[in-house]
Amino acid sequence: MSTAVAPRPQRTFFGHPAGLSTLFFTEFWERFSYYGMRALLVLYLVAPPNGATPPGPGLGLSTATASAIYGTYVALVYLFPLLGGWIADRMWGFRRAVLVGGIVIACGHYAMAVPNEITFWIGLLLIALGTGLLKPNVSAMVGELYHDHDTKRDAGFSIFYMGINLGAFIAPLVTGFLMDSYGWHYAFGAAALGMTIGVVQYVVGGRKTLTGIGLTAPNPATPKEKRTFLTLVGGSVLAIVALALIEAWLFGFEIADMVDILGIFILIVPVVYFVKMFRRPGLTGEQVSRLHAFLGLFIGAAVFWMIYDQAGSTLSVFAEQSTDLTVDGFTIPVPWLQSINPIFIIIFAPIFGAIWAKLGDRAPSTPLKFAWALLGISISFLIMIIPAMSAETGAEVAVWWLVGVYLIQTWAELLLSPIGLSASTRLAPPGMEGQMLALWFLAVSVGDTIGAQILSRIGDNYVRVFTMFGLIALAAAVIAFLFVPRLKRMMAGVH
Length: 495
Fold this sequence. Notes:
By secondary structure, the protein is mainly alpha-helical. The chain has helices spanning 19-46, 63-79, 81-92, 94-112, 117-144, 153-181, 184-209, 223-251, 255-278, 285-308, 314-322, 340-359, 366-382, 385-391, 400-427, 433-458, 462-490, and strands spanning 12-13, 16-17, 323-324, 326-327, 330-331, 397-398.
């Protein structure tokens, strides 16, 4: 007589596929390295070249130049995922792209840990390139853990997003302490160590929990397509270099000019890419409709990130210049303010995830969530007009204004960012998941580029800055609410 053996229960991560744990911690360490360095970037750029140790000498750039470099760097970080998504979709597969990306990021941070200006710029470039390979493809692998209509999908992305923000919370505290205690390059070295841990964890954990996930390219490219890709990438690099050389020859080289050249290029890229996607042979009417819906979400996301990403520039400078950072006798280091939003995300992401899981099909649609997100980001800047007007009199405003802004932006972010990640994978035509996620991240790049251009033209008057950006987001929110029904129809069954 034989006895049936019950199947061994599958390992889970908070009720989700076990592979989510590996990707959760991979993204945690990548974000630790990214935000740990980013919290220091503008401060290092403006620090005097003869500064005492710690933190030590900086590059001594003007605030305007430093802000332009910061914005361009962030834009490039979110531009290169377009290349990384294509490489994963058409050549390597998600697993290999994430691994190579993590290694390149770690090398970039190690380069920045060397006290040399040349290695600093090389490090920034390597981090941007590595992020392009890792960022869209680790998110695509999260999508592969679920079937298209799994009600746990949005909740899974929310948990994944919590890992992002856990790393973003801890990193500025660690690197800020190391900066004050030991110097800039020890702090940069901590970011390098974090990414190294992330790579090791990804390799070891992936062998057990990611079996069969992301091993092959979903839509392998032909040799001709590969040659075309390399030609386009090489031609773009040569064009940028040529424009920079011409500008330097005619008018003398300025970093601001290079920022403008890269900005124009960044804005052209999504236009070209969307046109190419819509002209892709074999798309069904439903797939074209979903791409149009994605374009609408893309525009809304660009407006959102245009304002949100000023946390590391406008809001940080406002904190340093016009905010009383002393609480109960303790002066909060400016980089530590970058941890406020992540801690709110850690608190509220599980709550939002539980709400979406509880509501299931009754949850608000993706377009409606986006509309509320735009309204929230608008309010966050409009209320800052009040402390900005007070600061114009020379008074230092309470740090709680910034805390309130970060809280509102957190709620808005949870209505847009993890939801946008999930929607990108569901709206993508077959075999284009990685590229769609790359385009999703490119919205950040477009938003940061436009924001930098606006800031360079309206000056550093905080009342003017908060008013203009707040009204732009408010107008976008009104339009988004009006278009919710149409976008829902265009999404063709995707909630």
